[in-house]
Automatic annotation (TrEMBL):
Residues that span the membrane, as ranges: 23-41
Gene transcribed to yield this protein: penA
Residue ranges of domain Penicillin-binding protein transpeptidase in the record: 252-550
Membrane topology: Single-pass membrane protein
Cellular compartments per GO CC: plasma membrane
Record has Membrane as a keyword: yes
UniProt-listed GO biological process terms: cell wall organization; division septum assembly; FtsZ-dependent cytokinesis; peptidoglycan biosynthetic process; proteolysis; regulation of cell shape
Lineage: Bacteria, Pseudomonadati, Pseudomonadota, Betaproteobacteria, Nitrosomonadales
Pathway it works in: Cell wall biogenesis; peptidoglycan biosynthesis
EC primary class: hydrolase
Residues annotated as the enzyme's active site: S298 (acyl-ester intermediate)
Name the record gives this protein: Peptidoglycan D,D-transpeptidase FtsI
Keywords: Carboxypeptidase, Cell cycle, Cell division, Cell inner membrane, Cell membrane, Cell shape, Cell wall biogenesis/degradation, Hydrolase, Membrane, Peptidoglycan synthesis, Protease, Septation, Transmembrane, Transmembrane helix
Source organism of this protein record: Candidatus Methylopumilus planktonicus
Domain Penicillin-binding protein dimerisation intervals: 65-211
Amino acid sequence: MSLFINNKVEKTFFELSGIRRRLILLLFLAGFVTLILRAFYLQSLDKKFLQSKGNATSTRVISLYADRGKITDRNGDILAISSPVESVWVNPPNVKITKDQKLELEDILKLSANEVDQKLLNNKKEFIYLKRQISPEDARRLQALKIPGVFFQKEFKRFYPAADIAANLVGFTNLDNIGQEGIELSQNKFLSGKLGSKKVIKDRAGKIVDDLQEVKLPQDGHDIKLSIDARIQYLTYRELAKSIDIHKAKAGSAIVLDAKTGEVLAMANLPSYNPNNFREGGGPTRNRAVTDVFEPGSTIKPFTVSSALEAGILNPSSLVEISSGLMKIGSATIHDAHTDGSKPFMTVSEVIAKSSNVGAARIGLMQTPKNLWSTLNKVGFGMQTEAGFPGEASGRLRDYKNWGKVDQATISFGHGINLTLLQLAQSYTVFANDGEMKPVTLFKKDEISMGTKVFSKQTARLMVEMMEQVVEEGTGGNAKIIGYRVAGKTGTAEKIGANGVYEKNKNIGSFVGLAPVSNPRIIMAVMIDEPSLGSHYGGAVAAPVFSSVMADVMKILKIPQDIKTKNKVMPQDNKDSKETI
């Protein structure tokens, strides 16, 4: 009996289990069919639901910005630095803004109602900038408005503490922090570093709801230390501006070099611009001292004479016929700017001191064209200095094989040749280093570079003595510095017009000098473009800039004085000063 009952229960249990299994299977099949039908419905008949869910969150890769490297002067003073800012962007279709919020937004971003409307209304783009690079304070004010669809992006903005004083040299970056001019352009890759990235999930409001941890860290840019001394840069810019203002000149440039290392201690240009607000209107961005060429005039004469000295053709006391200041070569006439008409001869030293064109032409013609050309070529004329500045001009020195007699004569006193002010400044390192020309650089150096031997030590020192007479007794009297012996050369040249003809009312006045003569440490080259008020000669417009700047440079660098009795009287602006053209 008992056994019978147990078998019946067991049989019933197995029968119920079979039904249950079939029922469960049917339920699974029904659910699966339901899911398929639902998926089909959502994907084919009702897409909006999935699209709305997909739009609610999205996976995005956001950029992690690298900090651009600093640009400093040789002493570590900042010339360019990046500061964190915010850029404001919107997703126009999602922007929900009240009238009051819109008015506050326009006020904070300094945008007109029309500008805001153009970006927000009837705009189907999902990303558009309202304004780039606003201050953190303005960003906080705007964030407090909590306007849906308005987002913020961290960026870096470049600031230039020296402003227009070093603008043409340092340059500037665009809104994306990419160098556009100057050192910012030439060293852009080194300064920029590399962007990083991070993958995140954002909701419809633009908020990050999940970080997927796929991070590529940014690599900050490298700092750059220039050879510039900010103190000397300021002095140079200030004195250059004074001369341009006094003589109502079109433009001007000046360069200060360390004579031993070839480092550029200052490079100033006017007109300039302020790179901090350049987009609101600025002046010329080019660095005239490196990109613009001009005929150097009489500043070339020391090389013409040195070439002849080196060849053994003459010596400082040799007499040179100047024909009372006039010389004819075929149909061409060469003349001196001033002569009393009674002196048919000058010594070589006097040709330099009094800046005689005729004397320089005769000395040039005493040499073979190849010899003179070779000298000018060795000191870098007609080729770039490779100082590291973008857009550097090479200048023009025609091959001697194409020279005629007139060409050789005029090139001897600086006509028919053009160069940059940087090339001219570099060439005078020959006289400061016993005949060795030093390479120039815009970057701080820790050691002295080897130069190129051009002249013998004797030739270089003889020329320095002759150029000292230019300052003591000749056309460069305004370049004197109390307590220091100065050597240099003035230059004046007429500019060539668009028709290829020299224009008598447009001149360039220049001066290149070095100090102290006993141990040359500093070289300075000055060029004033189209002075229109008062004298236009280099001795009057450029030499005073040299004197004012170099007097302070000697103090800043603590360079010992080398005389005690000479140059006791401060140089005056000699309005009657003349020199050859």
